[in-house]
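Posting for a labmate who doesn't have an account.
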Amino acid sequence: MKMIRTLIPILCLLCFLSPVYATEQEPLVIESYANAQKYTFTVSKSQLEKCPDWNDGGDVPFPVGKARTLGFKELHKLLPDADDYDFDTISLERQKSTGKWYYRIQFLKLRGIPPGPVPAFMVVVLFDGTVVDPVVGPMM
């Protein structure tokens, strides 16, 4: 009985701390696909928290044109057939748990494809100018 009384406060403390730990580690994960490969862009919560704030009014902390240029450079670094892709959209996305914003840049493959759906590829650029390097693996 004495052991149970000792364990109950410890278990309660662990249950209380677990959600805080999980929340602290919540990453931003975006997947994109090209050439039978999966590109997983992951940004930790702490990395996002270091980025400048934006209140969705006024100028963004990192210029859209620079983000687009960095996105093109990353596309050419990642894909051997990057010249077959054209810029499509750049969007401001918000990660909910931090309230931090980032750019999601989408390119469409318009050349060298058979008829059907147009493949899209995305690149992530943070508000501090960081281009997120993906982990590349086979498409499953």
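Reply:
Got it, the structure tokens are right above this. The chain has one domain: 24-138.
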